Amino acid sequence: MPEFFTVRTPPDAWKLLRQHFAPHIRTEQISTTDALDRVLAAPLASPQDLPEFARSTVDGYAVNAADTYGASSSLPAFLTIIGEVAMGRTSDLQLGVGEAALVHTGGMVPAGANGVVMVENTQIVDKTSIEVLRPVAEGENVIQIGEDIRTGDAILAAGHSLRPQDIGGLLALGITTVTVARPPRVGIISSGDEVVAPDQPVVPGQVRDINSYTLAGLTRRAGGQPILYGIVPDEQPALEAVAQQAHLECDIVVLSAGSSVSYRDLSVGVIAGLGAPGVLAHGLSVRPGKPTIVAVAGGKPIFGLPGNPVSAMVIFDLMVSPAIRALLGATEQPKQQVQAKLARNIASTAGREDYVQVRVEERDGELWAVPVFGKSNLIYTLVHADGTVKIDLNANGVREGVWVTVFLH
Amino acid sequence: MPEFFTVRTPPDAWKLLRQHFAPHIRTEQISTTDALDRVLAAPLASPQDLPEFARSTVDGYAVNAADTYGASSSLPAFLTIIGEVAMGRTSDLQLGVGEAALVHTGGMVPAGANGVVMVENTQIVDKTSIEVLRPVAEGENVIQIGEDIRTGDAILAAGHSLRPQDIGGLLALGITTVTVARPPRVGIISSGDEVVAPDQPVVPGQVRDINSYTLAGLTRRAGGQPILYGIVPDEQPALEAVAQQAHLECDIVVLSAGSSVSYRDLSVGVIAGLGAPGVLAHGLSVRPGKPTIVAVAGGKPIFGLPGNPVSAMVIFDLMVSPAIRALLGATEQPKQQVQAKLARNIASTAGREDYVQVRVEERDGELWAVPVFGKSNLIYTLVHADGTVKIDLNANGVREGVWVTVFLH
Fold it and tell me: Chain B contacts of A86, Cβ < 8 Å?
């Protein structure tokens, strides 16, 4: 009977995939204000010093630090006020010896001054003079030119996903447009004679399409653009036609369908027909998710995912998401994860990666990972889980009470 | 000189805020397929059993388990094939004693059958009969009616943020629309005579607006809709007019501006003028972020954030984001966080919460949190940081090598 022909470990399958898949990162230029969560396509260097002028960090008086040395409440330094630095204006004041200028937080420190004494540490004598009650050091309460960032400094590397503070940092430098990777197009094909669209009535024997929409959400989260090709009957000509169209129009093709042997034969045949080098792995040594097909055709990754929703999600995270990230040129940030103590022993078999769905619970201030037992063909196994714990390829399970990393969904 | 009048700890300020702020959650009905990351406004219960029919989990023969008891390779059970269950069809087959029906993975288990023997454990005798080489238990290889979820079972609670697998779970039940919270409108006002729009040229003394766009991004991440009111000069009538408009049009108002004492006086006056009960905290015992104003006017939270970008982000996470989540009715999921070892001693003062920006580095497979030293008025302190470590109100700092939780940006 038909079985899996070329079972590989997930790392081996990925390595093989990458040998035949040289991602071409397509780029576009967009407004920086629209670039949240987009991936930079080129490194950015600073076009200027930030700040471009010495700024005061306090409300006070810009002074020459040497004029305040030794000052105290009992023996204050006496300085002449030569003016006020207006906010948002270039100050043309020029301090001489024994002179001071009123300056506000964020205001420009005028020429001749090298420190700012806080207003709390001064006493007004009259309109044109103050007493300084504490000395200031050179540079005290001043942000120097280029202290935030200097002209030519690397700001952000290619592959970085832009966060709110990055947007702020770019705009601070007047960088109002950025070149980012376009979201890769991920074609999603659902197949199965028993599968119907979610808004259609079902009769016993039929099930509603779950995977198309779950995979579309996962694609969006990874930074891709999902393109749904609908539900295709389990017939070779129909599936072939849709797969070829998706392969033409998309950067990645994902077939999600029934898990029956007949379907697997059908889809492996259709995938093999899309082009060279074709099927690289037919079966992965992972649970759940063994009935996976990993292929490349004409430089584009093609995945045949198991029909079970839990398996499909595990394999998406393991294979499809990294392929999307590769097409974005994205460097990986630390993942969404928490450390938790395992609430039960988990058995496993060496030579196979296991992915266990868990709920994260807080007990007396400690996080616990509670395995959600449920068959991988049950969607509510996923709905009731907060994340996944990986049991390594060569581990024989993990004991209760051990700290594990939960990768959050 | 003017100072902070009512300094409170962040928990006290939040408690006081919530006494005057009873969030009214506005809802809307949208398509489930568009509901990724939206917050459910009402709990959902299952309208049906899932699956609605007993499904096979393997390719094989539906049988009456009792007919296979004691079967082995040497003494197989002999069964008569009465037909095949077509995928996606309601089967009208009815098994009698000694009968079997061919069934595929995901197919309906016909009446009279209570288990499925895998095809691998059978041998075809002729077109109408098989030998079963191993017994099956009752229920083996069958997903029972309602095994995934039962009619009336709670699916998801109000306040839950919808993930890809939740979308799949809802669609599996034919739930094609959901009632979710509308994104709260967050009015963002930037103020300061020295602040100019990022696309404008600057002269020494001026700085580009950082905070409006950083805060807009943080608002989006929290699930709110940012509404930018532009840059307002440091003049009471102008700021008052814009603040009143934002207060009228939005659910939350955030003023972000200079940190000078004169500005703080101006903004506290403008905020106090928006309505009762007015300013609840004028100063927070947190570093960075002390010059914060927390207020409620007419049931709407109003925040005066410090002008420094690092302080503004810390206070946003601490106060504004929870207010947005409250208006969404959102229950909190485990946060994006990693455990890491602190790479240096951090000093702190009891009686004040400290938030330290850190970079997360991997060294020999362990994560380390490396404090990013930089003044909180430097935007690149944030750009170079991966997350924040909190030093508790009553801690006197944390020692190098201690495991800390890093809340990722």
Answer: 193, 205
CB distance B217–A164 less than 8 Å?
A: yes
Chain A CB contacts of B55 below 8 Å: 207, 377
* Partner residue facing B165 (CB), from A106, A234, A409: A409
The confidence score (pLDDT) of residue B2 equals: 43
C-alpha span between A397 and B313 (Å, rounded) = 42
Give whole-number Cα distances, B100 to B53, B96, B118, B229, B286, in Å.
Answer: 18, 8, 12, 72, 73
Judged by CB atoms closer than 8 Å, whether chains meet at B217 and A383 is answered as: no
Angstrom distance (rounded) from CA A47 to CA A33: 18
Is the N-terminal amide bond of B277 cis, ω within 30° of 0? Answer: yes
Domain A10-26+183-328 of CATH type 3.40.980.10: yes
pLDDT at B258: 63
Residue A221: list chain B partners with CB under 8 A. Answer: 36, 164
Could you please state the CATH topology (level 3) that the domain comprising B55-143 is classified under: Molybdopterin biosynthesis moeA protein; domain 3 (2.170.190)
User: B309–A86: do the CB atoms touch at under 8 Å?
Assistant: no
Q: Which fold has domain B27-50+156-181?
A: Molybdopterin biosynthesis moea protein, domain 2 (3.90.105)
**Fold assignment, B10-23+182-328:** Molybdenum Cofactor Biosythetic Enzyme; Chain A (3.40.980)
| A36 contacts in chain B (CB < 8 Å) | 217, 220-221
Q: Give tens-digit pLDDT for A336-357.
A: 778 899 999 988 888 888 889 8
Would you say residue B158 has pLDDT above 90? yes
pLDDT at B140 over 60: yes
Q: Which of A199, A179, A152, A182 is nearest to A50 (CA)?
A: A152
**Structure token digits, residue A91:** 């100050």
| Contact at CB, A204 and B32, closer than 8 angstroms | no
Degrees to nearest 5, angle at CA A131 with A128 and A132: 125
CA separation (Å) from B309 to A74, B315, B321? 38, 10, 16
| Contact residues on chain B for A104, CB-CB shorter than 8 A | 258, 260, 262
Size of interface A-B (CB pairs under 8 A): 295
State how far the Cα of A319 lies from the Cα of B135, in Å rounded to an integer.
Answer: 37
Burial category of B225 from C-beta neighbours within 10 Å (exposed 0-12, middle 13-18, buried 19 and up)? middle
On whether the CB atoms of residues A151 and A145 are closer than 8 A, the answer is no
Six-digit token string for A396: 């024989």
* Interface contact B172-A379, CB threshold 8 A: yes
* Shortest Cα–Cα distance, B253 to chain A (Å): 18
Q: Chain A closest CA to B178's CA: distance in Å?
A: 13
Structure tokens at B188: 């963002």
Taking the CA atoms of B315, B316, B320 and B325 in sequence, report the sign of the dihedral they define.
negative
Closest listed residue to residue B291, CA positions, set A87, A164, A58: A58
Indicate which of A32, A308, A379 best probes the interface with B, i.e. most B CBs within 10 Å of its own CB: A379
Per DSSP, the three-state class of B294 is: strand
Whether residue A87 and residue B339 make contact (CB cut-off 8 A), yes or no, is no
| Cross-strand bridge partners of residue A123 | A131
Domain B337-408, CATH: 2.40.340.10
| Spatial distance between the Cα atoms of B129 and B114, rounded to a whole number of angstroms | 19
Name the least confident of A367-376, A383-392, B75-84, B255-264.
B255-264
Q: Where are the domains of chain A?
A: 10-26+183-328, 28-49+153-181, 55-143, 337-408
Phi, psi of A168 (to 5 degrees): -60, -45
Q: Alpha-carbon distance B118 to A107, whole Å?
A: 79
Question: ipTM for the complex?
Answer: 0.89
What's the pLDDT at A2? 43
